[in-house]
Design goal:
Blueprint: H1 40-67, H2 71-77, H3 87-108, H4 121-135, H5 141-155, H6 159-169, H7 180-191, H8 203-225, H9 230-241, H10 247-263, H11 273-287, H12 289-318, H13 326-353, H14 358-384, H15 388-422
Helix pairs in contact: 2-13, 3-12, 3-13, 5-6, 6-8, 7-8, 8-9, 8-10, 9-11, 10-11, 11-12, 11-15, 12-13, 12-15, 13-14, 14-15
Length: 423
């Protein structure tokens, strides 16, 4: 006696929708003319077959996307899409993986200086100053001159380092009641007193002096820019004092150094309100590093998805008269964005692997960035079928316009989240 799972499935109508069958699949609902009343081994076999089929489509999609610029979008335009992953799925998956990796790496590479909100900065500053006065010995001008004499011997021919030491210890850049950077120079000089008469240069002392001078410059900027804003001043001082390593902290310190070089010659006489505003935002973002990065990372995928129609609109305007429907230009936009996301993901992963070889990581990033630019240009040229000169002009306009839109959008997000964190 045969069981139902052994019997062939010879129905002439689809079990799902009731329409007449004209082949292996229902022409209305797409259900295959097979029955799940079968052996377990057959079901397992079908499972692995489906898995292999999905993998083959992913491989075909990625190989076409990366090695045949523009071909994937052309295939969809020509309605030859069965062998490929859908554009929206490819876009969403690649963007989510990329921004997830950005969120993880950025959060791990930034610190959170802010643990509690600065409620009463005046009281906090007074308490810290009182503690510092008790811990830090006062130095007379004569003592400072004696230290400088020793320092000259220890830095020898490094005249710039000696001038930097004078700038710091004599308070030429900024006047500080309590100066931990000067104290570190004093302590190291005391430690090296036995070497003074031997004419031995100490590079550790030179680095300490240079770091101290740079810290003084950054503090000078803070005092000049934020005389009326004690909250930002205190946050900035915490950033300058911090020895933590972090992308936002490092970037903010570099910005402070740049502001000093820009305004020192004029004694900070020409500070614009816009400079103050954006520096305030930068300090707040760095001070709330991890929270800020987390909020930005959560919102960037949505921002990029919202900007996609703007990108498509620019494409459409640049290619009026080509007769290519907007829906196919949307598919093209999703494909090149997916390519960029995947390539940037690979770039981040390689940079993490090459952390101990910075130059290799930098070269890899530059090569992959160049690959994106060249590949997107070739995709643009092939998809729209224009010559090199016309394609280059249009590609240049597209890059400038979209770059401006993207920069303004990111800046608006930075301002928004910074203001929200300080509200």
């Amino acid at each position: 006696m045969t069981t139902s799972e052994q019997q062939p499935h010879n129905d002439t109508k689809c079990d799902n929708c009731g329409e007449e069958l004209l082949g292996a699949f229902c022409w209305v609902c797409g259900q295959k003319d097979t029955h799940y009343n079968r052996s377990v081994f057959k079901v397992i076999g079908d499972f692995f077959k489906e898995m292999f089929d999905v993998d083959s489509r992913v491989f075909t999609t990625l190989s076409t996307l990366f090695f045949r610029p523009g071909k994937l979008s052309i295939q969809f335009r020509d309605n030859k899409r069965a062998s490929y992953v859908t554009p929206i799925r490819l876009y969403l998956f690649s963007s989510l993986v990329f921004f997830f990796l950005v969120a993880i790496t950025s959060r791990s590479q930034n610190v959170q200086l802010a643990t509690d909100r600065l409620v009463d900065t005046t009281e906090t500053t007074q308490m810290e100053s009182s503690q510092m006065r008790e811990e830090t010995p006062s130095r007379t001008q004569e003592e400072i001159d004696e230290y400088l004499t020793s320092i000259r011997s220890l830095v020898r021919v490094q005249e710039d380092a000696f001038e930097s030491a004078k700038n710091v210890l004599k308070g030429r850049i900024v006047t500080l009641e309590n100066d931990p950077w000067s104290e570190r120079i004093f302590e190291r000089t005391d430690y090296l007193q036995d070497l003074v008469s031997r004419g031995v240069s100490d590079w550790g002392l030179i680095e300490e002096i240079q770091s101290a001078e740079e810290a003084h410059r950054r503090l000078r900027v803070l005092y000049e820019f934020f005389q009326e804003d004690s909250v930002t001043l205190e946050m900035g001082k915490e950033i300058v004092k911090s020895r933590e390593r972090g992308q936002l902290l490092t970037a903010t310190k570099l910005v402070l150094s740049d502001r000093y070089r820009e305004h020192a010659d004029s004694e900070f006489a020409n500070i614009s309100a816009l400079e103050i505003y954006f520096l305030r935002l930068e300090i707040a973002a760095a001070y709330n590093g991890k929270d800020f990065v987390e909020e930005m990372a959560e919102s960037l995928p949505l921002m990029m998805f919202v900007l996609l129609p703007i990108f498509v609109s620019v494409l459409s305007l640049l290619n009026l008269g080509k007769g290519i429907r907007v829906v196919f230009q949307l598919i093209f936009a999703m494909h090149i964005h997916a390519l960029a996301f995947i390539t940037l993901t690979v770039s981040i992963l390689l940079s993490l692997l090459l952390t101990n070889i910075p130059i290799a990581g930098l070269i890899t990033t530059l090569v992959l960035t160049l690959f994106i630019v060249v590949h997107v240009y070739l995709s643009f040229k092939n998809f729209y079928g224009s010559g090199h000169i016309i394609s280059l002009i249009k590609f240049f306009v597209l890059t400038i316009v979209y770059g401006v839109v993207l920069s303004v959008s990111v800046l608006a997000m930075v301002v928004f989240f910074t203001l929200m964190s300080n509200a």
